[in-house]
From TrEMBL:
Stated name of the protein: Uncharacterized protein
Stated family: Belongs to the short-chain dehydrogenases/reductases (SDR) family.
Species lineage: Eukaryota, Viridiplantae, Streptophyta, Embryophyta, Tracheophyta
GO MF annotation terms: ketoreductase activity
Highest rank taxon of the organism: Eukaryota
Residue ranges of the TM segments: 119-142
Entry keywords, A to Z: Membrane, Oxidoreductase, Transmembrane, Transmembrane helix
Xref: InterPro entries: NAD(P)-bd_dom_sf, SDR_fam, VLCFA-Steroid_DH
PANTHER family assigned: RH59310P
GO cellular component: endoplasmic reticulum
Source organism: Spirodela intermedia (Intermediate duckweed)
Amino acid sequence: MAFELARRGLNLVLVGRNPDKLSRVSSKMKAEVPGVELKTVVIDLSGDLSEGIRNLKDAIKEIDVGILVNNAGLSLIKPMFFHGIDEKIWGKIVRVNLVTPTVVTTTVLPSMLQRRRCAIINIGPGSTVILSFPLYAVYTGIKGTRTLHLVAAFYINILGNTYTPPLLSS
């Protein structure tokens, strides 16, 4: 998705936990899309967000942010019954899929509010649009953005949506 946005003329701030991977993607993108402006920010989305969020604020300070794509996600390795899952695993899943995109969105939103025409896109699995998806209750419940869209659209022209490809490999 990032490469397609760059090809369409958007400059990007790429966020990830692995600085080497960010550097490789950034180099490849600059080679494939000459003229694209890129910044990278390292944030461990499952750990302490404070330093990474400070770095993100610095990275977007002078940028007119028009689109935010929350593309990180974490799920169970396999379907499991709710009562059989360790609390630490649930905590990590909730942190990556709910807490982190909420914190990132509230960090970027002030810049978007000034623009008054923006989009927030959350990437989530097809299971988020299926009302009953056994063994993935917490995961599917935290990936939607309909309420965010309604709140943002009420005040300003921000589109919030969830894109749901059937399978993701990351």
